[in-house]
Amino acid sequence: MTPAQFEKNIEPRWQKLEKLLTEAEKSKPAVAVEELPATFRQVCHDLSVAQHRMSPQRLTQKLNALAIRAYRVLERRSAGGWEAFVRLFLVQFPQAVRAEWKLFWWCTALFYLPAVLIAVITPAHPEWAMALLGPDSMVQIESMYGESSKPSDYVRENFGSEFAAFCFYIWNNVSIDFKTFAGGVLGGVGSLFVLLFNSIYLGAVFGYVHYSGNPMTLYTWVVAHGAPELTGLVISAMAGLRVGLSVLRPGRLERRAALVLAGRKAMPLLIGAAVLTSLAAVLEGFWSPLDLPPAMKFTAGGVCWLLVAVFLMFSGRRQADAA
Amino acid sequence: MAAPRADTLQSVELADGVEIQLRVAGLTVRSMAYMMDLLIRIGIYIVAAILAFWLLAGVIGPQMTGGLMMLFMFFMEWFYNVIFEAGPRGATPGQRSMKLRVMSLTGGPVTLAQAVMRNFLRVVDFMPGLYLTGIVCMLFTKRFQRVGDLVANTVVTYADPPPVITPNVEVRAERRAPSQVLTREEQAALLQFIERAPLWADERRLELAALAQPLTHAPGVEGLRRLCGMALWLQEPEEKRAAPPPLKGASLFQS
Q1: What is the number of CB-based contacts under 8 A between chain A and chain B?
Q2: Torsion, CA B236, CA B242, CA B247, CA B251, rounded to 10
Protein backbone atom coordinates (compact mmCIF):
# COMPACT_ATOMS: atom_id res chain seq x y z
CA MET A 1 0.00 0.00 0.00
CA THR A 2 1.44 3.36 -0.95
CA PRO A 3 1.23 6.31 1.45
CA ALA A 4 -1.38 7.94 -0.77
CA GLN A 5 -3.58 4.84 -0.70
CA PHE A 6 -3.19 4.58 3.06
CA GLU A 7 -4.22 8.18 3.46
CA LYS A 8 -7.29 7.65 1.32
CA ASN A 9 -8.20 4.48 3.24
CA ILE A 10 -8.21 6.06 6.66
CA GLU A 11 -9.79 9.35 5.70
CA PRO A 12 -13.45 8.31 6.25
CA ARG A 13 -12.58 7.16 9.77
CA TRP A 14 -11.02 10.36 10.99
CA GLN A 15 -13.66 12.42 9.30
CA LYS A 16 -16.29 10.42 11.16
CA LEU A 17 -14.42 10.95 14.42
CA GLU A 18 -14.22 14.65 13.75
CA LYS A 19 -17.97 14.80 13.21
CA LEU A 20 -18.71 12.78 16.36
CA LEU A 21 -16.37 14.99 18.39
CA THR A 22 -17.96 18.21 17.24
CA GLU A 23 -21.24 16.73 18.39
CA ALA A 24 -19.94 15.42 21.71
CA GLU A 25 -18.19 18.68 22.58
CA LYS A 26 -21.52 20.48 22.66
CA SER A 27 -23.05 20.73 26.10
CA LYS A 28 -26.14 18.79 25.00
CA PRO A 29 -25.33 16.38 22.15
CA ALA A 30 -28.32 16.00 19.88
CA VAL A 31 -27.10 13.06 17.85
CA ALA A 32 -26.10 9.79 19.45
CA VAL A 33 -22.37 9.49 19.99
CA GLU A 34 -22.10 5.89 21.20
CA GLU A 35 -19.77 5.14 18.32
CA LEU A 36 -17.22 7.60 19.62
CA PRO A 37 -15.07 5.19 21.67
CA ALA A 38 -14.89 2.61 18.88
CA THR A 39 -14.06 5.22 16.25
CA PHE A 40 -11.49 6.74 18.60
CA ARG A 41 -9.72 3.37 18.91
CA GLN A 42 -9.70 2.91 15.16
CA VAL A 43 -8.15 6.32 14.66
CA CYS A 44 -5.62 5.56 17.40
CA HIS A 45 -4.70 2.47 15.46
CA ASP A 46 -4.39 4.51 12.26
CA LEU A 47 -2.17 6.95 14.11
CA SER A 48 0.14 4.18 15.27
CA VAL A 49 0.36 2.80 11.75
CA ALA A 50 0.97 6.26 10.33
CA GLN A 51 3.72 6.89 12.88
CA HIS A 52 5.34 3.57 12.12
CA ARG A 53 5.21 4.07 8.36
CA MET A 54 6.68 7.55 8.57
CA SER A 55 3.63 9.05 6.90
CA PRO A 56 3.84 12.72 5.99
CA GLN A 57 3.86 15.05 8.95
CA ARG A 58 0.62 16.77 8.12
CA LEU A 59 -1.16 13.41 8.39
CA THR A 60 0.41 12.31 11.69
CA GLN A 61 -0.08 15.77 13.16
CA LYS A 62 -3.72 15.82 12.19
CA LEU A 63 -4.33 12.35 13.63
CA ASN A 64 -2.34 13.25 16.74
CA ALA A 65 -4.42 16.35 17.35
CA LEU A 66 -7.61 14.37 16.79
CA ALA A 67 -6.53 11.66 19.21
CA ILE A 68 -5.78 14.25 21.92
CA ARG A 69 -9.11 15.96 21.31
CA ALA A 70 -11.03 12.69 21.48
CA TYR A 71 -9.16 11.57 24.59
CA ARG A 72 -10.07 14.81 26.32
CA VAL A 73 -13.72 14.22 25.50
CA LEU A 74 -13.64 10.59 26.64
CA GLU A 75 -11.73 11.38 29.83
CA ARG A 76 -13.90 14.36 30.66
CA ARG A 77 -15.58 14.06 34.02
CA SER A 78 -17.54 16.36 36.23
CA ALA A 79 -16.00 17.31 39.54
CA GLY A 80 -18.94 15.78 41.41
CA GLY A 81 -20.51 18.98 42.69
CA TRP A 82 -21.44 19.72 46.27
CA GLU A 83 -22.06 16.13 47.23
CA ALA A 84 -18.47 15.22 46.43
CA PHE A 85 -17.25 18.26 48.32
CA VAL A 86 -19.24 17.38 51.44
CA ARG A 87 -17.96 13.82 51.22
CA LEU A 88 -14.41 15.10 50.85
CA PHE A 89 -14.73 17.13 54.04
CA LEU A 90 -16.75 14.72 56.18
CA VAL A 91 -15.18 11.42 55.14
CA GLN A 92 -11.91 11.71 53.25
CA PHE A 93 -10.49 14.56 55.31
CA PRO A 94 -10.68 12.90 58.77
CA GLN A 95 -9.56 9.64 57.18
CA ALA A 96 -6.53 11.37 55.71
CA VAL A 97 -5.68 12.92 59.08
CA ARG A 98 -5.93 9.53 60.80
CA ALA A 99 -3.91 7.85 58.06
CA GLU A 100 -1.04 10.24 58.83
CA TRP A 101 -1.54 10.33 62.58
CA LYS A 102 2.17 10.37 63.34
CA LEU A 103 2.68 13.43 61.21
CA PHE A 104 -0.38 15.02 62.79
CA TRP A 105 1.00 14.61 66.30
CA TRP A 106 4.42 15.87 65.25
CA CYS A 107 2.86 19.02 63.82
CA THR A 108 0.63 19.45 66.85
CA ALA A 109 3.62 19.14 69.17
CA LEU A 110 5.70 21.49 67.04
CA PHE A 111 2.92 24.04 67.19
CA TYR A 112 1.77 23.88 70.81
CA LEU A 113 4.96 23.06 72.72
CA PRO A 114 6.98 26.16 71.76
CA ALA A 115 3.89 28.30 72.30
CA VAL A 116 3.32 26.92 75.79
CA LEU A 117 7.02 27.19 76.58
CA ILE A 118 7.17 30.87 75.63
CA ALA A 119 3.89 31.63 77.38
CA VAL A 120 5.05 29.97 80.61
CA ILE A 121 8.43 31.67 80.84
CA THR A 122 7.15 35.13 79.84
CA PRO A 123 5.75 36.24 83.25
CA ALA A 124 9.17 35.48 84.77
CA HIS A 125 11.27 36.68 81.80
CA PRO A 126 9.12 39.10 79.80
CA GLU A 127 12.06 40.33 77.73
CA TRP A 128 11.80 37.33 75.39
CA ALA A 129 8.19 37.97 74.52
CA MET A 130 8.82 41.71 74.30
CA ALA A 131 11.66 41.15 71.83
CA LEU A 132 9.44 38.89 69.76
CA LEU A 133 6.44 41.18 69.72
CA GLY A 134 8.12 44.54 69.26
CA PRO A 135 6.76 47.85 70.55
CA ASP A 136 3.93 48.21 68.02
CA SER A 137 2.35 44.86 68.80
CA MET A 138 2.77 45.47 72.53
CA VAL A 139 0.84 48.74 72.30
CA GLN A 140 -1.84 46.96 70.28
CA ILE A 141 -2.10 44.13 72.79
CA GLU A 142 -2.31 46.60 75.65
CA SER A 143 -5.18 48.36 73.93
CA MET A 144 -7.02 45.10 73.19
CA TYR A 145 -6.39 42.95 76.25
CA GLY A 146 -5.01 45.52 78.73
CA GLU A 147 -5.66 45.40 82.47
CA SER A 148 -8.70 47.66 82.20
CA SER A 149 -10.22 45.72 79.28
CA LYS A 150 -13.37 43.67 79.69
CA PRO A 151 -14.59 40.77 77.58
CA SER A 152 -17.54 42.90 76.50
CA ASP A 153 -15.21 45.34 74.72
CA TYR A 154 -15.45 43.16 71.65
CA VAL A 155 -19.14 43.67 71.07
CA ARG A 156 -19.39 45.22 67.63
CA GLU A 157 -22.00 47.83 66.89
CA ASN A 158 -23.77 46.33 63.92
CA PHE A 159 -24.07 43.36 61.64
CA GLY A 160 -22.06 45.04 58.89
CA SER A 161 -18.88 45.17 60.92
CA GLU A 162 -19.31 41.53 61.94
CA PHE A 163 -19.68 40.53 58.32
CA ALA A 164 -16.67 42.61 57.34
CA ALA A 165 -14.64 40.94 60.09
CA PHE A 166 -15.76 37.51 58.89
CA CYS A 167 -14.67 38.31 55.34
CA PHE A 168 -11.33 39.59 56.56
CA TYR A 169 -10.72 36.38 58.52
CA ILE A 170 -11.54 34.25 55.48
CA TRP A 171 -9.25 36.27 53.25
CA ASN A 172 -6.38 36.45 55.73
CA ASN A 173 -6.49 33.14 57.57
CA VAL A 174 -7.42 30.80 54.72
CA SER A 175 -4.74 32.46 52.58
CA ILE A 176 -2.24 31.72 55.37
CA ASP A 177 -3.35 28.06 55.32
CA PHE A 178 -2.79 27.86 51.57
CA LYS A 179 0.61 29.54 51.80
CA THR A 180 1.64 27.28 54.67
CA PHE A 181 0.81 24.29 52.53
CA ALA A 182 2.62 25.65 49.46
CA GLY A 183 5.78 26.34 51.45
CA GLY A 184 5.92 22.66 52.32
CA VAL A 185 7.06 21.68 48.85
CA LEU A 186 10.50 23.11 49.68
CA GLY A 187 11.37 20.01 51.66
CA GLY A 188 8.87 21.01 54.34
CA VAL A 189 10.91 24.07 55.32
CA GLY A 190 8.21 26.63 54.48
CA SER A 191 5.49 24.83 56.43
CA LEU A 192 7.76 24.32 59.42
CA PHE A 193 8.75 27.97 59.39
CA VAL A 194 5.15 29.22 59.34
CA LEU A 195 4.17 26.71 62.00
CA LEU A 196 6.99 27.64 64.37
CA PHE A 197 6.68 31.35 63.73
CA ASN A 198 2.97 31.35 64.51
CA SER A 199 3.55 29.14 67.51
CA ILE A 200 6.16 31.40 69.05
CA TYR A 201 4.21 34.55 68.27
CA LEU A 202 1.03 33.13 69.74
CA GLY A 203 2.93 32.02 72.84
CA ALA A 204 4.41 35.50 73.19
CA VAL A 205 0.97 37.14 72.95
CA PHE A 206 -0.50 34.85 75.57
CA GLY A 207 2.50 35.25 77.84
CA TYR A 208 2.50 39.00 77.47
CA VAL A 209 -1.20 39.28 78.25
CA HIS A 210 -0.65 37.18 81.36
CA TYR A 211 2.24 39.46 82.28
CA SER A 212 0.62 42.84 81.78
CA GLY A 213 -3.01 42.47 80.67
CA ASN A 214 -6.31 40.88 81.49
CA PRO A 215 -6.09 37.22 80.38
CA MET A 216 -9.84 36.78 80.81
CA THR A 217 -10.54 39.11 77.88
CA LEU A 218 -8.20 37.14 75.64
CA TYR A 219 -9.44 33.70 76.62
CA THR A 220 -13.14 34.43 76.28
CA TRP A 221 -12.37 35.91 72.89
CA VAL A 222 -10.31 33.09 71.42
CA VAL A 223 -11.55 29.96 73.13
CA ALA A 224 -14.26 29.02 70.62
CA HIS A 225 -12.80 29.92 67.25
CA GLY A 226 -9.32 28.86 68.32
CA ALA A 227 -10.31 25.21 68.03
CA PRO A 228 -10.99 25.06 64.28
CA GLU A 229 -8.53 27.84 63.43
CA LEU A 230 -5.45 26.42 65.11
CA THR A 231 -6.32 22.88 64.06
CA GLY A 232 -6.71 24.16 60.50
CA LEU A 233 -3.27 25.74 60.61
CA VAL A 234 -1.68 22.59 62.06
CA ILE A 235 -3.30 20.43 59.39
CA SER A 236 -2.33 22.72 56.52
CA ALA A 237 1.27 22.56 57.76
CA MET A 238 0.83 18.80 57.94
CA ALA A 239 -0.31 18.75 54.29
CA GLY A 240 2.73 20.81 53.34
CA LEU A 241 5.06 18.52 55.27
CA ARG A 242 3.50 15.48 53.60
CA VAL A 243 4.58 16.88 50.23
CA GLY A 244 7.94 18.07 51.54
CA LEU A 245 8.78 14.72 53.11
CA SER A 246 8.09 12.96 49.82
CA VAL A 247 10.93 14.98 48.30
CA LEU A 248 13.28 14.21 51.17
CA ARG A 249 12.31 10.58 51.65
CA PRO A 250 10.66 9.23 48.51
CA GLY A 251 11.01 5.66 49.74
CA ARG A 252 10.91 3.12 46.94
CA LEU A 253 9.35 5.52 44.47
CA GLU A 254 11.04 7.80 42.03
CA ARG A 255 11.16 11.34 43.49
CA ARG A 256 8.86 12.75 40.85
CA ALA A 257 6.28 9.99 41.34
CA ALA A 258 6.50 10.33 45.12
CA LEU A 259 5.84 14.05 44.79
CA VAL A 260 2.73 13.51 42.67
CA LEU A 261 1.44 10.83 45.04
CA ALA A 262 2.04 13.02 48.09
CA GLY A 263 0.23 15.86 46.36
CA ARG A 264 -2.81 13.63 45.95
CA LYS A 265 -2.65 12.56 49.58
CA ALA A 266 -2.29 16.16 50.76
CA MET A 267 -5.34 17.36 48.83
CA PRO A 268 -8.06 16.32 51.32
CA LEU A 269 -5.91 17.64 54.17
CA LEU A 270 -5.56 21.02 52.49
CA ILE A 271 -9.26 21.34 51.66
CA GLY A 272 -10.24 20.15 55.15
CA ALA A 273 -7.91 22.67 56.75
CA ALA A 274 -9.37 25.44 54.62
CA VAL A 275 -12.93 24.47 55.59
CA LEU A 276 -11.99 24.34 59.29
CA THR A 277 -10.42 27.77 59.06
CA SER A 278 -13.49 29.11 57.26
CA LEU A 279 -15.68 27.75 60.05
CA ALA A 280 -13.34 29.50 62.49
CA ALA A 281 -13.89 32.71 60.56
CA VAL A 282 -17.65 32.32 61.00
CA LEU A 283 -17.20 31.85 64.75
CA GLU A 284 -14.70 34.66 65.03
CA GLY A 285 -16.89 36.99 63.04
CA PHE A 286 -20.27 36.29 64.58
CA TRP A 287 -19.93 34.31 67.83
CA SER A 288 -16.80 35.53 69.57
CA PRO A 289 -17.85 39.21 69.71
CA LEU A 290 -21.19 38.38 71.40
CA ASP A 291 -21.58 39.81 74.88
CA LEU A 292 -22.11 36.67 76.93
CA PRO A 293 -21.02 35.66 80.43
CA PRO A 294 -17.53 34.09 80.47
CA ALA A 295 -18.90 30.78 81.80
CA MET A 296 -21.03 30.40 78.70
CA LYS A 297 -18.15 31.36 76.42
CA PHE A 298 -15.90 28.78 78.02
CA THR A 299 -18.57 26.07 77.79
CA ALA A 300 -19.12 26.81 74.12
CA GLY A 301 -15.36 26.92 73.56
CA GLY A 302 -14.96 23.53 75.25
CA VAL A 303 -17.69 22.13 73.05
CA CYS A 304 -15.86 23.46 69.98
CA TRP A 305 -12.61 21.76 70.92
CA LEU A 306 -14.46 18.55 71.71
CA LEU A 307 -16.34 18.68 68.40
CA VAL A 308 -13.14 19.14 66.41
CA ALA A 309 -11.47 16.27 68.27
CA VAL A 310 -14.44 13.92 67.86
CA PHE A 311 -14.81 14.88 64.23
CA LEU A 312 -11.17 14.13 63.43
CA MET A 313 -11.22 10.90 65.44
CA PHE A 314 -14.47 9.33 64.35
CA SER A 315 -15.92 10.93 61.22
CA GLY A 316 -15.84 8.64 58.20
CA ARG A 317 -14.83 5.52 60.11
CA ARG A 318 -17.82 3.50 58.96
CA GLN A 319 -17.15 4.38 55.31
CA ALA A 320 -13.60 3.18 55.77
CA ASP A 321 -14.90 -0.20 56.97
CA ALA A 322 -17.30 -0.40 54.07
CA ALA A 323 -14.70 0.44 51.49
CA MET B 1 22.11 6.29 20.49
CA ALA B 2 19.57 8.78 19.22
CA ALA B 3 20.63 12.39 18.87
CA PRO B 4 18.87 14.89 21.15
CA ARG B 5 15.68 16.14 19.58
CA ALA B 6 15.46 19.62 18.21
CA ASP B 7 11.74 20.03 18.88
CA THR B 8 9.65 20.22 22.08
CA LEU B 9 7.43 17.25 21.31
CA GLN B 10 6.84 14.97 24.27
CA SER B 11 5.57 11.46 23.70
CA VAL B 12 2.88 10.22 26.04
CA GLU B 13 1.29 6.82 25.93
CA LEU B 14 -2.45 6.95 26.40
CA ALA B 15 -4.37 4.33 28.32
CA ASP B 16 -5.55 3.05 24.95
CA GLY B 17 -2.01 2.13 24.01
CA VAL B 18 -1.42 4.73 21.37
CA GLU B 19 1.41 7.19 21.64
CA ILE B 20 0.49 10.82 21.23
CA GLN B 21 2.80 13.78 21.06
CA LEU B 22 2.26 16.88 23.15
CA ARG B 23 3.68 20.18 21.98
CA VAL B 24 4.92 21.58 25.27
CA ALA B 25 4.84 25.35 25.56
CA GLY B 26 7.95 27.23 26.62
CA LEU B 27 8.77 30.06 28.95
CA THR B 28 8.09 33.07 26.72
CA VAL B 29 4.62 32.18 25.55
CA ARG B 30 3.60 31.15 29.06
CA SER B 31 4.87 34.44 30.45
CA MET B 32 2.84 36.31 27.87
CA ALA B 33 -0.27 34.31 28.78
CA TYR B 34 0.40 35.15 32.43
CA MET B 35 0.69 38.85 31.61
CA MET B 36 -2.62 38.70 29.74
CA ASP B 37 -4.26 37.10 32.74
CA LEU B 38 -2.71 39.71 35.01
CA LEU B 39 -4.16 42.51 32.89
CA ILE B 40 -7.56 40.81 32.84
CA ARG B 41 -7.50 40.37 36.60
CA ILE B 42 -6.53 44.01 37.18
CA GLY B 43 -9.37 45.03 34.86
CA ILE B 44 -11.85 42.91 36.79
CA TYR B 45 -10.64 44.37 40.10
CA ILE B 46 -11.08 47.93 38.85
CA VAL B 47 -14.56 47.26 37.50
CA ALA B 48 -15.59 45.41 40.66
CA ALA B 49 -14.25 48.16 42.92
CA ILE B 50 -16.07 50.86 40.97
CA LEU B 51 -19.33 48.90 40.95
CA ALA B 52 -19.06 47.99 44.63
CA PHE B 53 -18.30 51.41 46.04
CA TRP B 54 -20.55 53.26 43.65
CA LEU B 55 -23.66 51.15 43.66
CA LEU B 56 -23.42 48.57 46.41
CA ALA B 57 -22.06 50.77 49.19
CA GLY B 58 -25.19 52.93 49.15
CA VAL B 59 -27.44 49.89 49.55
CA ILE B 60 -25.71 47.69 52.12
CA GLY B 61 -23.29 50.04 53.76
CA PRO B 62 -19.54 50.53 53.40
CA GLN B 63 -18.53 47.82 55.86
CA MET B 64 -20.50 45.06 54.18
CA THR B 65 -19.15 46.22 50.81
CA GLY B 66 -15.59 46.16 52.09
CA GLY B 67 -16.16 42.66 53.39
CA LEU B 68 -17.59 41.46 50.11
CA MET B 69 -14.64 42.97 48.25
CA MET B 70 -12.27 41.06 50.50
CA LEU B 71 -14.11 37.81 49.83
CA PHE B 72 -14.04 38.59 46.11
CA MET B 73 -10.30 39.26 46.22
CA PHE B 74 -9.76 36.01 48.08
CA PHE B 75 -11.54 34.03 45.39
CA MET B 76 -9.85 35.88 42.55
CA GLU B 77 -6.42 35.40 44.09
CA TRP B 78 -6.74 31.67 44.65
CA PHE B 79 -9.42 30.39 42.30
CA TYR B 80 -9.32 32.47 39.09
CA ASN B 81 -6.91 30.07 37.39
CA VAL B 82 -8.36 26.98 39.07
CA ILE B 83 -11.87 27.50 37.76
CA PHE B 84 -10.78 28.20 34.20
CA GLU B 85 -8.20 25.44 34.03
CA ALA B 86 -10.55 22.81 35.43
CA GLY B 87 -13.26 23.98 33.03
CA PRO B 88 -14.05 22.38 29.66
CA ARG B 89 -11.42 24.37 27.76
CA GLY B 90 -8.62 23.72 30.21
CA ALA B 91 -7.25 27.24 29.87
CA THR B 92 -7.55 30.68 31.42
CA PRO B 93 -8.53 33.56 29.11
CA GLY B 94 -4.87 34.57 28.92
CA GLN B 95 -3.79 31.07 28.01
CA ARG B 96 -6.53 30.86 25.41
CA SER B 97 -5.35 34.09 23.84
CA MET B 98 -1.93 32.46 23.41
CA LYS B 99 -3.53 29.20 22.20
CA LEU B 100 -2.26 27.28 25.20
CA ARG B 101 -3.91 24.60 27.27
CA VAL B 102 -3.16 22.89 30.56
CA MET B 103 -3.14 19.13 30.28
CA SER B 104 -2.58 16.28 32.61
CA LEU B 105 0.63 14.44 31.82
CA THR B 106 -1.51 11.40 31.06
CA GLY B 107 -2.90 13.27 28.06
CA GLY B 108 -6.32 13.80 29.60
CA PRO B 109 -7.98 16.98 30.81
CA VAL B 110 -6.94 18.54 34.12
CA THR B 111 -9.00 17.53 37.13
CA LEU B 112 -10.13 20.01 39.75
CA ALA B 113 -7.62 18.63 42.26
CA GLN B 114 -4.77 19.02 39.77
CA ALA B 115 -5.83 22.57 38.97
CA VAL B 116 -5.93 23.44 42.68
CA MET B 117 -2.53 21.90 43.28
CA ARG B 118 -0.71 23.57 40.41
CA ASN B 119 -2.14 26.98 41.16
CA PHE B 120 -1.76 26.97 44.93
CA LEU B 121 1.91 26.17 44.50
CA ARG B 122 2.36 29.40 42.57
CA VAL B 123 3.32 30.82 45.97
CA VAL B 124 6.50 28.74 45.84
CA ASP B 125 7.08 29.25 42.13
CA PHE B 126 6.92 32.99 42.63
CA MET B 127 9.65 33.01 45.27
CA PRO B 128 11.85 35.00 45.68
CA GLY B 129 10.11 37.21 43.14
CA LEU B 130 8.93 37.30 39.50
CA TYR B 131 8.45 33.51 39.40
CA LEU B 132 12.20 32.91 39.64
CA THR B 133 11.84 29.46 41.22
CA GLY B 134 9.28 28.46 38.62
CA ILE B 135 11.44 29.70 35.75
CA VAL B 136 14.55 27.88 36.99
CA CYS B 137 12.49 24.73 37.53
CA MET B 138 11.06 24.99 34.00
CA LEU B 139 14.52 25.32 32.50
CA PHE B 140 15.70 22.18 34.26
CA THR B 141 12.77 19.90 33.41
CA LYS B 142 12.37 18.53 29.94
CA ARG B 143 8.65 19.23 29.83
CA PHE B 144 9.01 22.85 31.02
CA GLN B 145 7.19 22.16 34.27
CA ARG B 146 7.32 24.54 37.18
CA VAL B 147 7.09 23.22 40.73
CA GLY B 148 3.30 23.34 40.70
CA ASP B 149 3.21 21.38 37.45
CA LEU B 150 5.54 18.74 38.88
CA VAL B 151 3.37 18.12 41.94
CA ALA B 152 0.09 18.26 40.02
CA ASN B 153 1.50 16.17 37.14
CA THR B 154 0.46 18.68 34.49
CA VAL B 155 2.01 20.31 31.43
CA VAL B 156 1.11 23.42 29.48
CA THR B 157 0.82 22.61 25.79
CA TYR B 158 -0.20 24.31 22.59
CA ALA B 159 -3.89 23.72 21.96
CA ASP B 160 -3.74 23.41 18.17
CA PRO B 161 -1.42 21.42 15.91
CA PRO B 162 1.13 23.60 14.15
CA PRO B 163 0.01 24.96 10.81
CA VAL B 164 1.28 22.82 7.94
CA ILE B 165 1.96 24.44 4.61
CA THR B 166 1.60 21.95 1.81
CA PRO B 167 3.19 23.28 -1.34
CA ASN B 168 1.45 22.18 -4.49
CA VAL B 169 4.59 21.43 -6.38
CA GLU B 170 5.52 18.62 -8.66
CA VAL B 171 8.98 17.28 -8.14
CA ARG B 172 10.43 16.41 -11.51
CA ALA B 173 13.06 13.85 -10.80
CA GLU B 174 13.55 10.33 -12.00
CA ARG B 175 12.45 7.78 -9.46
CA ARG B 176 15.31 5.55 -8.35
CA ALA B 177 15.87 3.01 -5.64
CA PRO B 178 18.40 3.99 -2.98
CA SER B 179 21.78 2.35 -3.50
CA GLN B 180 21.70 0.84 -0.02
CA VAL B 181 19.12 -0.25 2.54
CA LEU B 182 17.93 2.73 4.58
CA THR B 183 16.90 2.59 8.23
CA ARG B 184 13.48 3.84 9.25
CA GLU B 185 14.91 7.10 10.53
CA GLU B 186 16.78 7.67 7.29
CA GLN B 187 13.65 6.97 5.30
CA ALA B 188 11.75 9.43 7.46
CA ALA B 189 14.42 12.05 6.92
CA LEU B 190 14.20 11.57 3.14
CA LEU B 191 10.42 11.74 3.14
CA GLN B 192 10.43 14.90 5.23
CA PHE B 193 13.03 16.36 2.93
CA ILE B 194 10.92 15.86 -0.18
CA GLU B 195 7.91 17.21 1.68
CA ARG B 196 9.61 20.41 2.69
CA ALA B 197 12.17 20.98 -0.04
CA PRO B 198 9.82 22.97 -2.28
CA LEU B 199 9.58 25.61 0.46
CA TRP B 200 13.31 26.33 0.52
CA ALA B 201 15.65 28.34 -1.63
CA ASP B 202 17.83 26.49 -4.12
CA GLU B 203 20.99 27.08 -2.11
CA ARG B 204 19.43 25.51 0.96
CA ARG B 205 18.32 22.43 -0.97
CA LEU B 206 21.78 21.99 -2.40
CA GLU B 207 23.37 22.50 0.99
CA LEU B 208 21.20 19.81 2.56
CA ALA B 209 21.57 17.46 -0.39
CA ALA B 210 25.35 17.79 -0.05
CA LEU B 211 25.06 16.19 3.39
CA ALA B 212 23.66 13.08 1.73
CA GLN B 213 26.54 12.76 -0.70
CA PRO B 214 27.61 9.38 0.76
CA LEU B 215 24.21 8.11 -0.38
CA THR B 216 23.88 9.88 -3.72
CA HIS B 217 27.55 9.67 -4.77
CA ALA B 218 27.15 12.91 -6.68
CA PRO B 219 27.79 16.56 -5.80
CA GLY B 220 25.71 19.60 -6.50
CA VAL B 221 22.54 19.59 -8.59
CA GLU B 222 23.00 15.98 -9.65
CA GLY B 223 23.11 14.91 -5.98
CA LEU B 224 19.91 16.81 -5.27
CA ARG B 225 18.27 15.23 -8.30
CA ARG B 226 19.23 11.74 -7.17
CA LEU B 227 18.12 12.44 -3.60
CA CYS B 228 14.71 13.63 -4.78
CA GLY B 229 14.44 10.57 -6.99
CA MET B 230 15.08 8.27 -4.03
CA ALA B 231 12.51 10.12 -1.96
CA LEU B 232 9.99 9.72 -4.75
CA TRP B 233 10.81 6.03 -4.91
CA LEU B 234 10.14 5.77 -1.19
CA GLN B 235 6.82 7.53 -1.62
CA GLU B 236 5.76 5.23 -4.41
CA PRO B 237 8.10 2.36 -5.22
CA GLU B 238 6.25 1.17 -8.29
CA GLU B 239 5.98 3.19 -11.41
CA LYS B 240 2.39 3.84 -12.36
CA ARG B 241 2.23 7.18 -14.01
CA ALA B 242 3.28 7.27 -17.59
CA ALA B 243 4.87 10.64 -17.12
CA PRO B 244 7.77 11.34 -19.47
CA PRO B 245 11.15 11.34 -17.81
CA PRO B 246 12.09 14.89 -16.98
CA LEU B 247 14.45 16.69 -19.28
CA LYS B 248 18.01 17.01 -18.20
CA GLY B 249 18.10 20.78 -18.03
CA ALA B 250 14.55 21.38 -16.74
CA SER B 251 14.07 22.76 -13.25
CA LEU B 252 13.61 20.18 -10.54
CA PHE B 253 10.64 21.74 -8.75
CA GLN B 254 7.72 22.97 -10.76
CA SER B 255 4.49 24.33 -9.43
Answers
A1: 142
A2: -50
- CA distance to A88, A94, A278, B122, per residue, from A82 (Å): 10, 18, 16, 26
Judged by average pLDDT, the poorest of A13-17, A21-25, A39-43, A89-93 is: A21-25
- Cα B142 to Cα A156, B5, B108, B137, B160: the distances in Å are 56, 11, 19, 10, 21
Give me the amino acid identity at B148.
G
A270 and B235 in contact by Cβ < 8 A? no
Element (H, E) at A118: helix A101-121
Cβ contact, residue pair A178, B153, below 8 Å: no
- Which residues, 6+ apart, have CB-to-CB distance to A177 below 8 Å? A232, A233, A236, A270, A273, A274, A277
Q: State CA A82 to chain mean position distance.
A: 16
- Spell out which residues of chain B touch residue A256, defining contact as CB-CB under 8 Å: 150
Nearest-by-Cβ selection for B161 from A48, A61, A267: A61
Q: Quick count: other Cβ atoms within 10 Å of Cβ B104?
A: 19
| Min distance B140 CA to chain A CA atoms (Å) | 13
Which amino acid belongs to residue B193?
F
Q: Which residues pair with B11 in a beta bridge?
A: B21
ipTM over cut 0.90: no
Which of B11, B68, B74 is best to mutate for the A interface (most A CBs within 10 A)?
Answer: B74
Residue B119 has pLDDT above 80, yes or no: yes
pLDDT in tens, A288-310: 888 888 899 999 999 999 999 99
Name the minimum distance, in Å, from the CA of A140 to any CA of chain B.
Answer: 22
Residue B151 has its nearest CB partner, among A44, A165, A260, at: A260
Report which secondary-structure segment, H or E, holds A299.
helix A294-314
* Interatomic CA distance for residues B171 and A299, integer angstroms: 91
Contact between A177 and A236 (Cβ < 8 Å): yes
